[in-house]
């Protein structure tokens, strides 16, 4: 991904700001998803065809994870190791979402749309964060 494209996406030419903005966006989206799973695991489980208990547990996990990512985004210079960990977790989440869809979940039509879509969004965050992190190193 080019530096100009990254700068356009994050509306800054400062590489550290790009990293922080992509982490913050990840935290907001992940936190919102986690809170939705916590607050409405029953109805969402029925809609998606996913066990509501699993959604409740994922909601707690995602909310805690989002808080950690938000903390990292709040640092003036997020440590590269922390950002790399977020990138790795996001890539793993995306891959496991697809594996779960194929291997053991029996989702509804809405779930068949939602699960790959959220996996693509999370993979996109990983790609943006990785590209922005690369831009911070000479």
Briefly, what is this?
It is built from six helices and no strands. The chain is mainly alpha-helical.
Annotate the secondary structure layout.
Layout: H1 3-10, H2 15-39, H3 41-48, H4 52-74, H5 80-103, H6 109-136
Helix pairs in contact: 2-4, 2-6, 3-4, 5-6
Helix vs. strand class: mainly alpha
Strand percent estimate? under 5%
| Helix coverage percent | over 70%
Q: What's the average pLDDT?
A: 91
The number of helical runs is 6
Helix and strand string, N-terminal first?
A: HHHHHH
Low-confidence stretches: none
Q: CA-to-CA gap between the ends?
A: 16 Å
Radius of gyration: 16 Å
Q: Would you count the extended β strands for me?
A: 0
* Major sheet: none
Shape from CA axes?
Answer: elongated
Oligomeric status: single chain
């Amino acid at each position: 991904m080019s530096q100009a494209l990254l700068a356009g996406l994050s509306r800054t030419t400062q590489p550290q700001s790009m990293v922080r903005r992509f982490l913050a966006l990840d935290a907001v989206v992940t936190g919102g998803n986690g809170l939705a799973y916590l607050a409405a695991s029953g109805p969402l489980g029925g809609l998606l065809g996913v066990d509501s208990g699993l959604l409740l547990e994922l909601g707690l996990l995602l909310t805690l994870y989002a808080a950690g990512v938000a903390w990292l985004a709040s640092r003036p210079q997020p440590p590269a190791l922390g950002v790399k960990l977020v990138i790795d977790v996001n890539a793993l989440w995306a891959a496991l979402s697809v594996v779960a869809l194929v291997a053991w979940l029996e989702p509804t039509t809405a779930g068949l749309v939602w699960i790959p879509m959220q996996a693509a969004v999370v993979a996109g965050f990983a790609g943006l964060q990785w590209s922005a992190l690369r831009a911070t190193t000479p």
